[in-house]
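Quarterly update from the structural biology core.
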Amino acid sequence: MERVPRAGKRRLIHIARMWRCDQPLVEPGFRLRTALDAALLLGGEWRCAPLEYLRVAHLDGGGGLLAVSEQTGGHDALPIALDRIAREALLHDSRRLLIAHNHPSGDPTPSAADRNATRRLADAMRLFEIELVDHLVFARNGVTSFRQLGLI
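Predicted structure, tokenized:
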């Protein structure tokens, strides 16, 4: 049997919550340090969602969480409101953004529309010297990172 690395109690609580749809994942003072942190914060419970949702984590320069905002879409589409994201980023004095959305279909593969919207968002945020750290796509069959795919 493969040995599992030890994890602190707080990390285990977050991992357990990832599989429950009724538990909030954001705690005061939360810092994004790893891809697991991002997954726990932004999308664990979405595997249960029948609609598409978008979450934006507003971060300071060190990865500290300033705020999380959310937009709701339909069963198979979610128009990303670039103006709203930019306004909220400036309001929260964000230095970095991490966005995530779900695919109710179960397939985490980014669509052409996902890739286009992400490129437009990254370009728009660059004008305000705000870095788009990653875009995660959650689904029943896994999670996809735009950064890992080389799309950001």
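Residues 95 and 124 are 13 Å apart (CA to CA).
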